[in-house]
Amino acid sequence: MTIYEQRYRALKKQGYQAWVGEGYPRASRQLAVTLQSLQDNGILPTPGAACLELGCGNGAMASQWLAHKGYRVYGVDISPTAICWAQEAFAAQSLAGTFQHGDVCTLSMFGNQMFDLVFDGSCLHCLLGEQRQRYLNQVRRILKPGGIFIVSSMCGEPKLAAKQQNYDRAHYQLWQDGRPWRTLMPLPLLLQEIASHQFAVFNTQVNHNPWWDHATLCCTAAV
């Protein structure tokens, strides 16, 4: 059982609304402001477009916002509990969405050039080393020509002393429970990594938090 499956089982049992637990209202509001700004500025595709959230969890973040706005929503997550939870939550709200349990580094359930929008639901920073290369290659494969890839990722170095002690600066990895837990690299290196996989970043927003910064990067497939 993955650590993600363990956590989603515990969160659901304890009555929380999403992965971030008690922080859900703040995180949900912040994401809604970001997505609304992107829509207002013409960055998001027209409602009705096919949108995939990678690392969708229980669907309570970007998937839910997009569904309410009229997009055709798909989601993938490594946790079976999260996927069942998303399906239940969407049904309870009479929202349409297709959620599948799977590995974001393979995405074998999807054909080439299927999506107008691929949204990284704070997923990329959960991947380590070679996983990140496979993930970005898959996004490139499933994104339609002219489609938008939005990365929502931790960046910079941890700001809290307790986290700094567990930060491997040589590999840009934050450790937890004796093992690498998150990739947390400086923004310029994150931009360079994305560009190396043939994406062009055309819009960058950074939220400066007390714990670490969080970037929202809007990309298109480079020609």
UniProtKB/TrEMBL annotation:
**UniProt entry tagged with the keyword Calcium:** no
Q: Which GO terms describe its molecular function?
A: S-adenosylmethionine-dependent methyltransferase activity
Decide whether keyword rRNA-binding is in the record.
no
Give the record's keywords alphabetically: Methyltransferase, Transferase
Per the record, a Pfam family? Methyltransf_11
Family matches, as SUPFAM superfamilies: S-adenosyl-L-methionine-dependent methyltransferases (SSF53335)
Ranges for domain Methyltransferase type = 52-151
Entry's Gene Ontology BP terms: methylation
Source domain of life is Bacteria
Give the family from UniProt. Answer: Belongs to the methyltransferase superfamily.
What is the name attached to this protein's record?
Methyltransferase type 11 domain-containing protein
- Species of origin reads Gibbsiella quercinecans
Record lineage:
Bacteria, Pseudomonadati, Pseudomonadota, Gammaproteobacteria, Enterobacterales
